[in-house]
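quick one: manganese (II) ion bound model?
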Amino acid sequence: MTALTLSTAAAPGLRADAIVIGVAKGAKGPVVAPGAETVDKAYDGRLAGVLETLGASGAEGEVTKLPAPAGFKTPLVVAVGLGAEPDKNSGFAPEALRKAAGAAARTLAGAKKAAFALPLTDSADAGAIGEGALLGAYSFDAYKENGKDPKAKNGKAPLAEVSLLGGKPRDKAYKAAVERATAVAEELNRARDLINTPPNDLNPEAFAAVAEAAAKEHGIKVQVLDVKALEKGGYGGILGVGVGSAAGPRLVKLSYTSSKAKKHLAFVGKGITYDSGGISLKPAGHNETMKCDMSGAAAVFAAVVSAARLGLEVNVTGWLALAENMPSGTATRPGDVLHMYSGKTVEVLNTDAEGRLVLADALWAASAEKPDAIVDVATLTGAMMLALGNRTFGIMANDDAFRSAVHEAAEEVGEPAWPMPLPEHLRKGMDSPTADIANMGERMGGGLVAGLFLREFVGEGITWAHLDIAGPAFNEGGPFGYTPKGGTGTAVRTLVRLAELTAAGDLG
Ligand code: BES
Ligand code: MN
Ligand code: ZN
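yep, here:
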């Protein structure tokens, strides 16, 4: 994992493999961003011109490499685009810094140490740059080893050290920002590892074991319900989804508690370690990336551990609803009726609508503790991808103010999200002649139908929001900003922010 430090070292004498500077898109061409003054000076103040000659414009995501000026102990200058130059009175947005730092860290794979001289005016900027760099440096190569020194054989090791220039190493706020960025990025990157791990290695039992070990390490109380315990407890939804797989389901409960907590949040994650669709099998072309169907559980896991590492003054309970959705002679059939943990019965019309079934049981279990709010995270519907594309998640809720608060938190941390409605008229599409409700309704508005289904399993009077992350959970395109190919770790930072806001008394 990449290390993050603060440094007061000045550019020329600095020992590093590269120095990263910012370049913004100005009205008349590229503009060297604040933080790079000493570097610009060493180019006789002609750096903007040099960059323009090299074709740089300052556009977001652009990376230009140039040899360091004479007298520098660092051989390489990496100029990274920050996008449009902000007007005189405002600085660069945290998200612009995060993205630029991420793009720079990604191109510096293989390097040992890079000094980041990006525009930095306060500790929040330092946190954004640090977070972006640590997230951008991520790579998943656990399965590319074929020798003792895997990094040497396959690709380049991630950038080993990020040093932030212009930060104040002794300042409390700066130190806290670096600590926060490190904890959140490390846990988010672990969530990415879990998402990227092939489903033959990460089944529900294996996921539960990872959660158990991490919980013990960070003083989080952990409880794992195995198949026997689920049967005894009557968790018909989770069992019904997992019953077709040779790898049985699990329900993991992670409880982080603070002695100073005034509020209690519950996070619930969909953890389908592989979604084949079950008997309603997905066609070829739709199941190759379905190892990502546990991204919600991975996000919840990362958020709870982050809350513990940051010592947030709020109680956070994480529920990981883990199952593998497989077709077999023991699998749930379309037409079967499940007896859910809540006592309701569900007619399974389509075994591929499995996420709502495991979530229903976990939501009901979470509700029993009467938390101040519940937020579930799930790669729930293809319909949400059709609606919002593959970078934005949908937010539904049983409370408009809470939905707005979640949306605001997401925007603040740089996770694109958008509010979606829960239209009452779509509920009747799930009426079942046999059971209390069916697990499928109208095709149109499928993401909202799924949200309406979940709403039925939230305890009376409990504030609840549902994040459908099917779009942004897994990046099938090329990397961008601080987002890698594959598992993205989306929603982790929104959940952490919600926990922080709740601890501060600024939410609910
Ligand atoms: N895991 C899928 C949703 C999904 C699709 C996530 C693509 C990420 C990428 C979910 O379990 C599913 O199969 N949903 C069905 C529901 C339908 C059968 C009502 C869907 O969206 O097609
Ligand atoms: Mn499915
Ligand atoms: Zn699924």
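The two ends are 36 Å apart (CA to CA).
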